[in-house]
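so my prof wants the structure for this chain in the tokens format not the other one, which i didnt know existed until like an hour ago. anyway here's the sequence
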Amino acid sequence: MQAISRRLAQESLRPAASASSLNSLYPLAHYYNGADHPEDGFTLTPKGVGHLVRKGTGGRSSVSGIIATVFGATGFLGRYVVQQLAKMGSQVLVPFRGSEDSPRHLKLMGDLGQIVPMKYNPRDENSIKAAMAKANVVINLIGREYETRNYSFEEVNHHMAEQLAVIAKEHGGIMRFIQVSCLGASPSSQSRMLRAKAAAEEAILRTLPEATVMKPAMLIGTEDRILNTWAHFAKTYSFLPLIGDGSTKIQPVYVVDVAAAIVAALKDNGTSMGKVYELGGPEIFTLHELAELMYETIREWPRYVKVPIPIAKAISTPRELFLKKVPFPLPTPNIFNLDQIHALTTDTVVSENVLTFTDLGIVPHKLKGYPVEYLIQYRKGGPQFGSTISERVSPDAWP
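here's what i got, hopefully its the right format
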């Protein structure tokens, strides 16, 4: 018995052995561990993550080999990306800058210990490096469609993304970098957000030519900021303002399909590296047609007030003028968002001869049906008022 005790004591005093075992479990840990002198000159591996060792059957209790840092994971698209990664057995590091409750809803999506919240400061480089230290995949979902007193369009949509790319290159162990931009991002756009997104794409591909850029169209889903906003306004004021004459064309996409596209790009053997994908839904709507779909789902009689673009800009301009001149935060803009009004002056649809969902092996869902059924919560008679949309749509309507 004494011999066994002495042997156990000797084993516990061997730090080198435990360190080597840790390196065998996390072979990327030695590339960058938050030290003051990171490795220089590294770029992304051309093999992607396809060659990682995987264990298990592919479920949430398996090991996919992916350790992903998802910036912007607490946002709308973020929760779906985290869910897709977690259910395949990936470890997801979730940097957040709000309260401790911000990432709470994400922890249930993965197995025990697989979702790791990490408080960080986007303006602190060391904080970003710590969040990225043990990762081999970086996904940037940070973005904002309106300005605040503390963060401008350019800082949130451009400079933060460029900083992540620079740090990922210095890291040396990042195998994939995915930047989520916006469909319609262009240096010539009237929208400051879309111009900032275009600048971010250029900066990232210049720093990391192997990065993958996803450009989704307007996202539709349970927590979206378009149909929910419209339905709430229509229920409150009994009408819906249409910017212009409602003829602007858009190609909205189901948020789950975009998350699936991001994960599909990670699963390939590097074929999506260095490429740009435009992700739009299978149907093109005008703003008026999308509003009609919303009204049909909430069982309300359509009532519209067409607001000419110059008047819409005049209504939304005061917030932009006083945003940084008053000592208190101004309300978040909803329908009358000046930058979005600029964006809606031109059609936003997928271009010709570009990479799309098809190149990732994904068939996007049509909106009419389950993707918009969350709007039944706005029905006057309650969610059970009448039949649900999916009950009235034939299976042939689905892709």
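also thought this was worth mentioning. The two ends are 68 Å apart (CA to CA).
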